[in-house]
Amino acid sequence: MTGQRQAGFTLIEVVIAIMIMAIISLISWRAIDSVALTSRRLDQHTEEALALQRAFDQFERDIGARSPDLAESAASAAPEAPAASDAQQAEPQPVLPQLLPEAIRVSGMKTPAPRVDIIRGAPGRPDARQRVVWERRGANLVRAAGAPTAMTPLPAPAADAATVVLDQLLDFSVRAWAPGRGWVALPGQGEQPALALELVISRGVLGQTPLRYRRVLLLH
Questions:
Q1: Cα–Cα dist 20/17, whole Å
Q2: Which pLDDT value is given to residue 70?
Q3: By three-state DSSP, how is residue 153 classified?
Q4: pLDDT more than 90, % of the chain
Q5: Residue ranges of the domains in the chain?
Q6: Do 172 and 147 meet the contact criterion of CB atoms below 8 Å apart?
Q7: What gap in Å lies between CA 195 and CA 47, rounded to an integer?
Q8: How many helices and strands, by DSSP H and E, does the chain display?
């Protein structure tokens, strides 16, 4: 009898099949890893965008809630100056008003620690006010709020009250739009009050191109 040849794969065919499956598995793993990496980057960019949005929104809320009667209360609380004799009277010096409302103070814009002080109404307490400070501390943008009170002077924020709003901060600057002059550096004076406030935030890593974000807030 002539024996029939048993059907099946040869050793070479099995090895080739294993190699093909290994290559397919490697390609699939690389594709999955690429998708996972892209997803992580998108999540990171989304979180950074949300943090930036929250920072701009909170700053805008603080500016919008500023105390409008600060200048009036300060003027009423100031003692009346005694009348001077005609001989003692001197030629009055012209004093230009501040560009910004009295409730907003900007300082250190040309230093590594720029700062914005805002006196605003306390949330949920119509009779109270609080002092809010925005400033740069190293590579962080922080916000600190003092205790709300109806008394004066308003207390400064506690040392441990600061909250990091943004990290990887490269620059934090504020300018004012002065009528007839355009954007001017702060602090500053002018014949007319500023109409808008510009907040610019630059973020990134040193040595790389910074990302610059800008928002304009109307004051009047």
A1: 5
A2: 59
A3: coil
A4: 48
A5: 13-68+97-166
A6: no
A7: 32
A8: 2, 9
